[in-house]
Amino acid sequence: MKGIGLICWGLRVLVAACLVADAIVHLRLAGRYGMASAPGHLSEGLLFRAEAIVALVVALVVLVLGNRAAFAAAFIVAGSACVAVVLFRYVDVPAFGPVPAMYEPIWFGEKTVSAVAEGLGAVLSAIGFVHACAAAHKGRHAARDQRQNPTRPRPNRAP
After folding, report:
1. Segment (H or E) for 112
2. Phi and psi angles of residue 99, each rounded to the nearest 5 degrees, phi first
3. pTM metric for this prediction
């Protein structure tokens, strides 16, 4: 049972580390993209700061709770960020709604670090989700089995 707890904590720490790395990169890059934006659109700098804050909050939730909901949130944050960075690297998506056009057809160090952290974080959080589901399922069955077959004998009752 100790090995399972160690695996769970390892996943929590690794997922949180990926989210923190992602947040650091986004906070560092936010200044480059500034606060200027086209009328009716959010700035890339603002979007980067918001993503960084959400990633940091979810990293903390994963570390503190480490349950299915925490891993699901981490998967959504890391996965959506990974999809976005790859999409906007290879596809010139026009502005839509308040989201500006963010096409940037190059890879550079910080962008690569962010993409790797996001992709790895998404994969690890999916594993954490499955692991947490399996542990919860196992715990429910153990509790049911204990109720159905208690280890201590029942007292004899007189009719």
Report:
1. helix 109-148
2. -85, 125
3. 0.81
